[in-house]
Amino acid sequence: MTTRIETNDSSLPLRRDVKSLGHILGEILVHHGGTELLDKVEKLRGMAKTLRNCFDEQIYNELKEEIVNLDTPMRKQVIRAFSIYFHLINAAESNHRIRRRREYQLQDNHVVQPSSIESAILSLKENEIDVTTIQNVLNTLSLELIITAHPTEATKRSVIEIQKRISTILKSLDNNMLTKKERKKLEDSLLNDVTILWQTDELRHRKPTVMDEVRNGLYYFDQTFFDVLPEIHQDLEEGLVEQFPGHNWEVPNFLRFGSWIGGDRDGNPNVTPEVTWETLERHRDLAVKKYKEALVEVMKRFSHSTTRVDVSKELLENVEKEEAAYLENEKKWPVENEVYRRKIAVILARLKAVGKSEIGYQTSEELLKDLYLIQNSINNHQPALRELKMLKKLIRQVQLFGFHLATLDIRNHSGEHEAAITEILRKVKVTDDYTALSEEEKIKTLEAVLKDPRPVLLLNEDYSKETQEMIKVFTMIKKAHDTFGRKSILVYLVSMTQAASDLLEVLVLAKEAGIYRLHADGTVESHLNVAPLLETIDDLTAGPEILETLFKMDVYRNHLSIHGDSQEIMLGYSDGSKDGGTLTANWKLYKAQLEIHDMAKRHEIGLKFFHGRGGSLGRGGGPLNRSILSQPAETIGDGVKITEQGEVLSSRYLIEDIAYRSLEQATSTLLEASVNLSEESEQQHIRETAWENAMEEISKVSLKKYQSLVFEDPDFLTYFTEATPLNELAELNIGSRPMKRKNRNRFEDLRAIPWVFAWTQSRQLLPAWYAAGTGLESFISKDVENLKLLQRMYQEWPFFRSTVDNLQMALMKADITTAKEYISLVKDKEIADRIFSNIVEEYEATKAILLKVTGDEELLDHTPNIKESVHRRNPYVDPLNFLQVELIKELREQEEPNEELLNEVLLTISGIAAGLRNTG
């Protein structure tokens, strides 16, 4: 039965769906592997569940023995059964999120869902915020979400799409008005899709190319963003009109998506200028395709006849003129008095020719002008606005996406620019060895080049392949601006920024390509923002000084003046956490924002902080709205930019309803926080000096503890490499980028994603929590009042609350009992026991201190839905972990590569990632 169950337990419908999907999976297991397969899966599941309820040494050993004794064919089927089960749970939980949202909307007394657009607007009204303040905030509101190709999505696209179909069917089955026949049809479809899921290969058998990643990213624009973004804007506008009538509300385009995919060159040799150019073409092609589809729908409805309505004279004259100019070789609209359809036929003809011939639109502004022409005419005779919503939505889409679809950020490592500049300056005899210069000498040299309008590059000089490639990147950007518009590429990000010269080098390369120009009269043209990426603990500490050096330079201030006296700064969460531990990294990031904000304010420079958050907790992950609130309050008004990547894209944006909910939460949070800031409401954003001092003290102790293990223990790298599936991850084929920046076996060269991914798989999750407990405990032990201080910080300071809640989540997903299995993979038992004991001791200390701070009896007591989800999954992840350990052990003992064993290991990796909903 699927009748709604009236109960206080909101998770009952979810459990019902999970149970139903489990039964279907059971049928499929029997069909493909007989009752023996189902019985084996059920036995392992039952034992794991029993152990979770009450640990029993005998059952624990029996479970391990069952797993060791599995024969190869059965073992692979068992791995797949547990993995598929997680994909089904993920689909059911996605539908349950939609269900909960609908239940709020169906409440008779109209209970408003927290963190919704409606709740934010009602809050503004209840707090008597005047309309002028709200409109001023709207005019400066900015949220940019940047999708990246960071390899953190272990699940194949085909599997993700099946999950989406299953979730959609479950949503349809919630309809109490279904007939028996309709329900039967949906149940059959559900069985078919679960069967297809079982029969689909979960693994990629080749590494994706960059263009594969581009296609994956564009999928979300095609399926979700193109419709959801205008809907968010429209709902915000309509909500304001309803609650604050009489004001002519105008909601600017504050919410946008950008991309790194095809532009992120840092450590990825496959991202060439040619690949970036093809990416930009794909962006434009999709935008045009979506506009054509929308216009066809508009045309169906805009059958207004000049025999019934008076269209504007301007439109009539325009249609007559443009039909002659643009439809010479096209079939004209057959009904002469249907002027809107005639105009749309012209628009479609011009869209079809974009990028192909001169009759095509050269800019999206030209398309907007034509759409406004139709809108202005219809406003003269349209009695109701309902029919206009389709046209209004299309106009908003063109405003948001243009012909570039998504602004593409270019990113590269500072060392690449320095190498190119060194060669160029040596060839033209400016300096023999630029790299050997002091920072002061570098700045002086680069300033001189930027102040000289003459080019530095020699036209026929024989530069190295690497330098030629770097020059091609900038000439490609100039060509992109001319072809796709300047919005196509707005920002150039400099990874591993360590000095002011790192940004000036990019400006010099931009100057040589004509993107930055100094005219004879002294005026400057600059069409590319240059943004530092501050990643390591040292770089974050040095960040304010680096930027102040730039802000004091006339040549750089002239560049910024072209960009509205605003500087974008990217903050890297991954490498900072890898470098200093999650607690220290988060505090250093917060502190850097405060210091840079105050310094920029003195120089009258606006800022935009770009948060390079990952999906996992060890890389700054967490809910989007909580990420916004955890920033210093005074920086929110500067605009917010955040990366979205890997499994985050599919979990947040695969399904339109969930995408809407995630984006409305972010919008609601940003709107309320910005209004509070503009009102200078101190009680809303308290941050005491004592709190900052406490975090500084905690951070220092935590950093020392973290680095004593990760950098100072000579055996740590051995433990990490052997006690996790790090080396096996490289074969998973989830991204086009290499795991290491350089082909060296050094910790510093290992990327943060495999660092986090490997720890997550082994259930230790060390990057997400390690050393936090030592820092907190040390602070509390110094004064009996310090615990009360931390408790108040948790209640009143969003940053600290977010930090503590993420630590709780990390400890919930970690599992010491399961993690202990992985130490059997370490060859030196003394190393294994010593380091694992250190980890266990810190885990227990961190858990104990977090419960003291929160005042809860168990972790995540304040978020029962998340807590239940983790508990629901754990018993099913455990067998996959046990299997993974046995398989890795066997694989590493092989003298020759064993493809079958490796595939089974990869299946466990994919299944555990699906179960924990986290990779890197």
UniProtKB/TrEMBL annotation:
<dbReference type="GO" id="GO:0008964">
    <property type="term" value="F:phosphoenolpyruvate carboxylase activity"/>
</dbReference>
<comment type="similarity">
    <text>Belongs to the PEPCase type 1 family.</text>
</comment>
<comment type="subunit">
    <text>Homotetramer.</text>
</comment>
<protein>
    <recommendedName>
        <fullName>Phosphoenolpyruvate carboxylase</fullName>
        <ecNumber>4.1.1.31</ecNumber>
    </recommendedName>
</protein>
<dbReference type="InterPro" id="IPR015813">
    <property type="entry name" value="Pyrv/PenolPyrv_kinase-like_dom"/>
</dbReference>
<keyword id="KW-0120">Carbon dioxide fixation</keyword>
<comment type="function">
    <text>Forms oxaloacetate, a four-carbon dicarboxylic acid source for the tricarboxylic acid cycle.</text>
</comment>
<feature type="active site">
    <location>
        <position position="578"/>
    </location>
</feature>
<keyword id="KW-0460">Magnesium</keyword>
<dbReference type="InterPro" id="IPR022805">
    <property type="entry name" value="PEP_COase_bac/pln-type"/>
</dbReference>
<dbReference type="InterPro" id="IPR021135">
    <property type="entry name" value="PEP_COase"/>
</dbReference>
<feature type="active site">
    <location>
        <position position="150"/>
    </location>
</feature>
<keyword id="KW-0456">Lyase</keyword>
<dbReference type="Pfam" id="PF00311">
    <property type="entry name" value="PEPcase"/>
</dbReference>
